[in-house]
Amino acid sequence: MTLQTANDQSPSGPSFIAPEPNVRPRVLPTAQLGLILVGFAALIAATLASVALAQRNREAFELASRTQTVLSDTALSVELLEDAETGQRGFLLTEREAYLAPYRAAIGLVPAQLDRLVADTAGLPVAGDAERLRTAGLAKIDELKGTLDLYGQDGRAAALSRVMTNTGKTLMDEVREAAAAIRADQEHKLLERLNAAGDTSRILIAAEIGTAILVIFIALFTGAGFYRNIRALRGTQDELEATNANLEGIVETRTAALRQANDEIQKFAYIVSHDLRAPLVNIMGFTAELESAAQKVGRFVNERIRTSPGEVSAEIIETIGEDVPEAFRFIKTSTAKMDGLIGAILKLSREGRRVLAPEPLAMRALVENIAATLKHRTDEVDAEIVIQPLPDLTADRLAIEQIFGNLLDNAVKYLAPERPGVVTIRGHAKGPFAFFEIEDNGRGIAPDDHERVFELFRRAGQQNVPGEGIGLAYVRQLAYRLGGTITLESTFGHGTIFKLKLPLAGTRTQRDAA
Amino acid sequence: MEAVTIVLIEDDPGHARLIEKNIRRAGVNNAILHFENGTASLEHLLNNGHTPTLVLLDLNLPDMSGTQILEKLKSNNGTKHVPVIVLTTTDDKVEIQKCYDLGCNVYITKPVDYDAFATAIRQLGLFLSVMQVPDSK
């Protein structure tokens, strides 16, 4: 018969673990995450493409503007030369100084302008034409100067005859021809480049529109994804709320089931304690009656021995004097032990029924109090109880006192006589739990007995210390009821560490197991 | 004054015998009527309400519980003044309170420690010898 088994069901079963919500809040689905990444990559590619296209566009415009410069410089060169020629012709025709003004204005500018044109066209296919234009242009200026000098020296007729040689006209034709060649080439190129720039711009615009569409698409898609997620989350939240609301109901149902199981255990314990005690009352009662009767017989026999010694046999004397008292002694110790065991069952079943009242506990003070109650024993065996810093708990005071009381009592009880005993209590908090260790350097527990010591009425090792074998069963039951666990580590002959894990704050189990 | 009859309701013959012996040893010589079940004892008590009576009641009986008997005695006009002493092997607080709530006068647990039990019964005997049992009308 093990009450332990029946009691184990309630704390270790899954009944009081809050039910897992069946829908977990969804994280971003992988597909959606992938899409966002693709979107970002596309965005980056589009941006890079835009930058590259803009660069190309800028280059195209630069080339176009260079062509423009070449064209305008060509036109200006021709214009200046024509101005100069117009001035010379007008003067020679009219012989008036005023007609020479365009010549004077243009003549100084021409060399620089021609140099500029050559510089503009450096490296271009039209560089040869520009050079031709410059040579012809410079020659033309020399020709103009020459005719005007001649006018000054030899008069108008000489100058006109020089003009008539057609040298100037030939040079001017050469200039126009070169200019036309440059213009033809450059105008064609300009058109080409402007077209190219236009194409690039269109591609750029298309790329930007494409990027914008992509961004909008991704935004919409991920937005829809987020919306779905949020909706799913909201759904989960609603379910969670519903579950929470229902939790009370679940707790209620399970509490009722637990209460029923508990009631059955109580009933069982009652029946056991009553039904086993009833015959025991008879055994003890009639044993006492019998003993008093035996004592009467004994007194009678003793009287007879005193009055007529030969009449009573040695066998009778031995029976009355030794056998009968011995039998009574064994009957009495056995019934007393049985009564103790029944009492232990009753105590365990009662403890299972007691309503736990969690309260804040200063653990150091609590353990110090327990150590103080053991002081006479520790002094007697020259042992020491060392209390290291302990985390405080919110738990049922009596239960905690009984757990630590039993563990410390055991530690002191089973010290090794060959060395000074040291019992150390330490603890720390981690997450929602407090972890305590009660370590002794006592006799230790053999590996086979590590689980067994927690069983009801089981004791381990040398049986030279009085005990009923309920202490650790009781401790484990209490630890379970508080929502904790207890285990041990031990090296036989060297000592034992009891490891106790308890919730820092009162758990639901404590409230409901009432 | 008519002598008080002690009605002992106890299913365990051994217990009944031990109780009787100890009552006698305490010097109480009143008649003891022993019933081993609830039905017979109730039949007697409810029909013989005129005789001054004291009930020694065991809670655990084969046919009904002691508390049921207590309830019936206390709700019957003829027997509601009869003093009831409850004897039981458990010291369950809830059970004790229930008995007091139902109107039992004294509650005695039967300890396994025989000497203590004998002492309790003898004290009960002394108590019986000085107690004036009211007329049950």
Describe this structure as you would to a colleague:
The complex is a heterodimer of chains A (514) and B (137). Chain A has helices at 3-12, 30-94, 101-107, 110-120, 127-154, 156-164, 167-307, 314-351, 363-373, 375-381, 397-413, 471-481, 508-512; strands at residues 358-361, 384-387, 393-396, 422-430, 433-440, 485-491, 495-503. Chain A has 514 residues and is an alpha+beta fold. Chain A has a five-stranded mixed β-sheet with strand order 2-4-5-7-6, with helices on one face. In chain A, helix 1 (3-12) packs antiparallel against helix 7 (167-307). The two termini of chain A are 24 Å apart. In chain B, strand 4 (84-88), helix 4 and strand 5 form a beta-alpha-beta unit. Chain B starts with a strand and ends in a 7-residue tail after the last helix. The mean pLDDT of chain B is 78. Chain B is 42% helix and 18% strand. Chain B is globular and about 35 Å long. By secondary structure, chain B is an alpha/beta fold. Chain A binds chain B through residues 270, 273-274, 277-282, 284-289, 335-336, 339, 346, and chain B through 12, 14-15, 18, 21, 60, 88-90, 92, 110-115, 117-118.
Indicate the topology:
The complex is a heterodimer of chains A (514) and B (137).
Chain A: H1 3-12, H2 30-94, H3 101-107, H4 110-120, H5 127-154, H6 156-164, H7 167-307, H8 314-351, E1 358-361, H9 363-373, H10 375-381, E2 384-387, E3 393-396, H11 397-413, E4 422-430, E5 433-440, H12 471-481, E6 485-491, E7 495-503, H13 508-512
Parallel strand pairs in A: 2-4
Antiparallel strand pairs in A: 1-3, 4-5, 5-7, 6-7
Chain B: E1 5-9, H1 13-25, E2 32-35, H2 38-47, E3 53-58, H3 66-74, E4 84-88, H4 93-101, E5 106-109, H5 114-130
Parallel strand pairs in B: 1-2, 1-3, 3-4, 4-5
Helix pairs in contact in B: 1-5, 2-3
In short:
Chain A is of the alpha+beta class.
The major beta sheet of chain A can be summarized as: 5 strands, mixed
Please give the order of strands in the largest beta sheet of chain A. Answer: 2-4-5-7-6
Distance between the termini of chain A: 24 Å
Tally of helical runs of chain A: 13
Category by helix and strand content of chain B: alpha/beta
From the N-terminal CA to the C-terminal CA of chain B, the straight-line distance is: 14 Å
Q: How many strand segments of chain A?
A: 7
Care to count the β-strands of chain B? 5
Strand share of the residues of chain A?
5-15%
**Low-pLDDT stretches of chain A:** 1-26, 508-514
Q: Kindly state the percentage of residues in helix of chain A.
A: over 70%
